[in-house]
Amino acid sequence: MTETVYETLDALGICLPEPVRPAAAFVPWTAAGDLLFLSGHIARRNGRPWTGRLGETLETADGVAAARATAIDLLATLHAATGNLATVRQIVKLMVLVNSAPGFTDQHLVANGASDLLIEVFGAAGAHARSAFGAAQIPFGSCVEIELVAQVARVPHAG
Amino acid sequence: MTETVYETLDALGICLPEPVRPAAAFVPWTAAGDLLFLSGHIARRNGRPWTGRLGETLETADGVAAARATAIDLLATLHAATGNLATVRQIVKLMVLVNSAPGFTDQHLVANGASDLLIEVFGAAGAHARSAFGAAQIPFGSCVEIELVAQVARVPHAG
Amino acid sequence: MTETVYETLDALGICLPEPVRPAAAFVPWTAAGDLLFLSGHIARRNGRPWTGRLGETLETADGVAAARATAIDLLATLHAATGNLATVRQIVKLMVLVNSAPGFTDQHLVANGASDLLIEVFGAAGAHARSAFGAAQIPFGSCVEIELVAQVARVPHAG
Question: What's residue A51's pLDDT?
C-alpha cells in the first residue's frame, strides 16, 4: 500500500480538498491510542451542504455520489490528521447516515459510494465494519453524513 | 465463564447460524487492538430481512424478538471472528436502531431483546454500554439493526 | 486542568446530580483499555424524560438546554466511573441524537449545548469529535440522547 495511496487518488482523478472545518463546537478528529475518530462529515457539493432526502427529492444514484464525495472529504481530514495517508493501517468502521423518507430502504447502496472508494484507495486496509441507516434529518438538511474510525501506524497530535 | 458459553447457548436452545455475509461493500467485523467492531446486523427471519416498523406494523414484542434474533446473528459473527466465544472478555457497547413510527417511544424495551440475551450468555462479561433510538429507516426495511463492540482476550486476524 | 474541573463546575453553578440508572438491561458505562464508553443518556428535566420533538413542539433553544442538561448527566456518570474527573484525559467523541421533525436541520446547534459545556469544563481536553443527526424517536419520547467516549488516565473497574 504505502506511498501508492496518493498515486491511486491521482489515478482516480481525485484531488483532496481543503479539510472541512466543523460548523460547530467540535474538532474534525481526535486520537486515542492508535485510533483516529473522525467527526461526522456531511455531504457537500460545490463547498455547500448537499441537501435533499433519499426517496423524496433524491435518487439512489445521487446518494451514492454524495457518499463518495463525503468519503473524499473524510480522506482530506485523514490526510490532514496523519500528514501521510500511508500511515493509515486500516479503516476500522464507518457509520453512514442517510437522510431518508419513510419508504426508502436502500441505505446500504448509498453507503457503498463511500465504502467502494475507501477500498479502491486503501485496498485490503480499506475494508471496514459498517452501519448504515436512515436518519430523520441531518444538519443543514444534508443528504448524507459519515463518521469514520481508522487505525494508524503513527499517532498524530491533537486535531 | 469460559467454555460454558456454548453450554449456555445449548441450554437456551440456540444453535448459532452461519454468520451473515454483508449485503454490500464492507466486512462483518474488524479488529483494532483487542477491540472487535461488528458491522450493523439487520434483523432477519427465516434468512430474510425481518421487515416492519415499530408503532406501525409491528408491536413491541415483535421488536424484542427481532432484537434477540439479531443478537444471535451477532454471536454467530463473534464466534466466526474469534473461533471461540470464551475469548470474549466483554461486550463493550451496542448501538440498537429501531425502525420507528414517530409515536413509538419504547426503543429501550426492544433493545432489551438483545441485551438480555447477551447477559444470559456471557454473564457479567455481557453487561454493556448501549444506545438505542429510532431510525427513520433501515436497509431492506428491516425493523432492527444492531452494531456491537467487544473486547477479546486473543485478537483474531482480519474478517 | 486537574483539580480545577470541580472548581469550574462550581463556578458554572453546576452541581453534579446522582448518576442516572439505566432504565433497561444495560450498564451506564464500560471500560476497555483506557477508553470509557458511556451509554446513551437521554435528556431529563426535573428527573423525568425531557420530551418533545425539535421543529414540532420544541425550539432550538430548548434543544440546546436539553443537550446541556444531558452533558451534566454524562459528567455525573463520568465522575461516578472515574472517582475523579481530573483523570479524564480527553473527551474523544460524542454522538448526539436529536428527536427531529422532518424539517428541522439545526441538530448541530442543539448539540452545541453539550459540546460547549464540555469544552468549558475540561478546556482543550474537552474538544471532541462529534456526530449529530436527527433520530425518528428516542426512548421515552426524550428530545435528545447523547453517547460519549472518553479517554482516562486511570482505568476504573466495571460500571
Answer: 98
Q: Residue A77: give its domain's CATH number.
A: 3.30.1330.40
DSSP line for B49-93? E-B--BTTTB-HHHHHHHHHHHHHHHHHHHHHHHS-GGGEEEEEE
Number of domains within chain C: 1
Any chains having at least 3 CB pairs less than 8 A from chain B are A, C
Note the helical H segments in A23-154.
60-82, 107-122
In a domain, C145, yes or no: yes
> Distance of alpha carbon A125 from its chain centroid, rounded?
15
Q: How far is B11 from chain A (nearest CA, A)?
A: 31
- Answer whether 0.80 is exceeded by the pTM: yes
Residue A81 forms part of a structural domain = yes
Cell of C41: 443518556
In this complex, the residue of A30, A137, A147 whose CB is nearest that of residue C104 is: A137
Q: What is the largest CA-CA distance in chain C?
A: 44
Tell me the per-residue pLDDT of A68-86, one tens digit each, with 9 for 90 and over. 999 999 999 999 999 999 9
pLDDT above 80: residue B135: yes
- The ipTM (two decimal places) reads 0.94
Question: What's the pLDDT tens digit per position in C105-114?
Answer: 999 999 999 9
